[in-house]
Each structure stands twice: as structure tokens, then as C-alpha cells.
């Protein structure tokens, strides 16, 4: 039986050469973000951004929610995949980093599709539940890891019955299997992974790509 292929540097380079279609706007935003403290670690891989664009286009998404904006690389990837007339709501605890992304969103011609909400994520999500209900086709969660179980539960309320939830960093730099790692963020990821694995309401798959990506959709009820 085939097992998970271990990617060498050469093989990773091959995958990037024959898969990645990152354009100039995305590449420049990624480069600027890499100059920030912990910028490279906090930003999604370009291959993951490309996957997000593909997934959003498959939905197809008229409403996208992003929990955790940072400099807006993934925001741009998702906004480009919106169906005509669609909107993306992205939320973060501060607008400091989103201001960097805004120039790139404008250059890419998607700025008018993006709404930035600033504040505590739980408060923002509760407001969205009141305002928009179950109106999102895709939710991308890439925020503080200790909050993952809570963000997941609220996202289930916000996403439609045929929608998709995508969660980043679910292997968390490999710390999930380190018995010495007992910090709140690692424990949050562990709690989330166990919660989703055992949740009869959903179908899910944890993909060992980048830092771990979990795909979730509500279980369809059949007659």
C-alpha cells in the first residue's frame, strides 16, 4: 500500500515548478510580507493560496469569510475566485497588517469585493451570525490557534449546507506530536483536531500539505 511520500528539497522544487502559477502581484506581496517579523511563518505558502483559489472557485463562492487576515495574501487568492457579485469578509484583531494588503488588492482589481472587520474574532463572528446568518459558501480559518474550537463552532453556523470550511496550521509546525509542547496554541490545535475527527455533523480530511490543512463540510443527509 502506498504511503505518504516524503518531499525532498528537490521534489518540493519540482512541485513548485510544475504547479505554482503565482503572478507578480502575489509574489511582491509575499516578498514584502517575508520582510516582517515572523512574516514567512505566518503567511500561507503560495501553493496553499493557489489551492484556496481553486477550492473557492469549485464551490462556487458568492460569500467568503476569512478569520485572520494578516497581510492579505490569502485574502487576495480567495477574492479572485469569488463568483460575480460576490463579497469576502476578512477579520483580524488589528488593521495594521491588512493595510499592507490593501494596495495589492487594489492593484489586482478586487478591493471593492473585500470588507475588512477589525476586532476580537469571537465578537465579529457573533455579529456576522446576527447580520448574515448561514450565508457563506466558504470559511477560511487562519487565526490564533487557541481559539480554533470556538471559531469552528461559529463557522458551522455561518457556512451554508453545501459550503466548505478550510482550516490552516492543523499540524502546527509538527508540535501536535511533541509531548513537551503544552502551550495554549498547540493545545488549541490538538483540541480542534480531536473535535473535528469525532464530529458526526461533518465530513473532513486533514491534508499533510504546508503546515496541515483541514477541509470540512457538513454531512449531507440522505433519505
Helical percent range?
40-55%
Return the structural class.
Answer: alpha/beta
How many strands, which pairing sense, and closed or not: the largest β-sheet? 7 strands, mixed
For the secondary structure, the number of strands is 7
The coarse overall form would be: globular
The average pLDDT is 95
Number of helices: 9
How far the N terminus sits from the C terminus, by CA atoms, comes to 35 Å
Q: Tell me the strand percentage band.
A: 15-25%
Q: Could you name the ranges where pLDDT drops below 50 across 5 or more consecutive residues?
A: none
List the secondary-structure elements in sequence, H or E: HHHHEHEHEHEHEHEE
Computed over alpha carbons, the radius of gyration is 17 Å
What does it look like?
By secondary structure, the protein is α/β, with parallel strands linked by helices. The protein contains nine helices and seven strands. It has helices spanning 9-19, 24-34, 39-42, 46-58, 73-79, 98-108, 121-132, 148-158, 184-197; strands spanning 63-67, 87-92, 114-118, 136-141, 159-168, 202-207, 213-218. It is globular and about 45 Å long. The mean pLDDT is 95.
Q: Layout of helices and strands, plus pairs?
A:
Elements: H1 9-19, H2 24-34, H3 39-42, H4 46-58, E1 63-67, H5 73-79, E2 87-92, H6 98-108, E3 114-118, H7 121-132, E4 136-141, H8 148-158, E5 159-168, H9 184-197, E6 202-207, E7 213-218
Parallel strand pairs: 1-2, 1-4, 2-3, 4-5
Antiparallel strand pairs: 5-7, 6-7
Helix pairs in contact: 4-5, 7-8
Task: Provide a quick synopsis of the model.
The protein is α/β, with parallel strands linked by helices. It has 9 helices and 7 strands. The termini are far apart.
Amino acid at each position: 500500500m502506498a504511503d505518504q511520500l516524503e518531499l525532498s528539497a528537490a521534489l518540493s522544487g519540482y512541485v513548485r515548478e510544475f504547479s505554482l502559477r503565482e503572478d507578480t502581484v502575489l509574489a511582491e506581496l509575499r516578498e514584502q510580507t517575508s520582510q516582517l517579523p515572523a512574516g514567512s511563518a505566518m503567511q500561507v505558502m503560495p501553493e496553499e493560496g493557489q489551492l484556496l483559489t481553486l477550492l473557492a472557485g469549485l464551490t462556487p463562492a458568492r460569500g467568503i469569510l476569512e478569520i485572520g487576515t494578516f497581510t492579505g495574501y490569502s485574502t487576495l487568492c480567495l477574492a479572485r475566485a469569488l463568483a460575480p457579485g460576490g463579497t469576502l469578509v476578512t477579520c483580524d484583531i488589528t488593521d495594521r497588517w491588512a493595510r499592507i494588503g490593501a494596495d495589492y488588492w487594489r492593484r489586482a482589481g478586487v478591493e471593492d469585493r473585500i470588507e475588512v472587520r477589525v476586532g476580537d474574532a469571537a465578537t465579529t463572528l457573533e455579529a456576522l451570525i446576527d447580520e448574515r446568518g448561514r450565508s457563506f459558501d466558504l470559511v477560511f480559518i487562519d487565526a490564533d490557534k487557541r481559539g480554533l474550537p470556538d471559531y469552528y463552532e461559529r463557522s458551522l453556523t455561518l457556512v451554508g449546507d453545501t459550503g466548505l470550511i478550510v482550516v490552516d496550521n492543523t499540524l502546527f509546525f509538527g508540535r501536535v506530536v511533541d509531548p513537551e509542547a503544552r502551550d495554549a496554541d498547540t493545545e488549541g490545535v490538538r483540541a480542534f483536531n480531536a473535535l473535528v475527527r469525532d464530529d458526526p455533523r461533518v465530513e473532513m480530511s486533514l491534508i499533510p500539505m504546508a503546515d496541515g490543512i483541514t477541509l470540512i463540510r457538513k454531512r449531507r443527509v440522505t433519505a
